[in-house]
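ok trying this again, last paste got cut off
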Amino acid sequence: MKYWILTILLCLTSLGYAQFQWGIQGGLNFSDQLDLSLTEVPDDFQDVSDQKTGWHAGIYGQVNFAVFRLRSELQYTSTEATINNEGLSIQTIDLPLTLGYKFLPPLSVFLGPVFQYQMVDDSFETFRVENLEDEVKTGIHLGVRAYFKKVGINLRYERPLNSTEQRLVDLNNSDTFARFNSREDQWILGISIQLN
């Protein structure tokens, strides 16, 4: 019992020394090929790109305790892929929440959930995209962040926790010819700049 009281007192004491930071951030997103499963391939169907690439930009707020960091981010993400020689653009509003642990002065590791609202561009010449699941997705991410004064550089791995299946419908006959997962495992390289 006395250990719990000591732990609570230590946490309350560190709250007095907590520091709040906020700033801007951006970076690059890399993920594998779309998980495309073809059902009936139209005659004019070509191919799928090997990799989705994209970028993100947003803001963050962070509270620093002795060795722990609580961080919330709000960011806009855009990724591109190619299906049937047409560009597939997927935009999301992401809300990652992270708990970090500083194990060396400039380095910390972190993990936490990611909430994502997804918007898929469906203006194509030969097909349209239809959602089969909710547009709000959840995921989890973990990574490492290095701090250099007011600049932070992070590398994180992110994976979805729920289904993100969508389907492609041929505009000529309204048949579904493929299903794909629009949110897959991805690596994210980011940079942040503290503004306060």
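PB: full thing came through this time. The mean pLDDT is 78.
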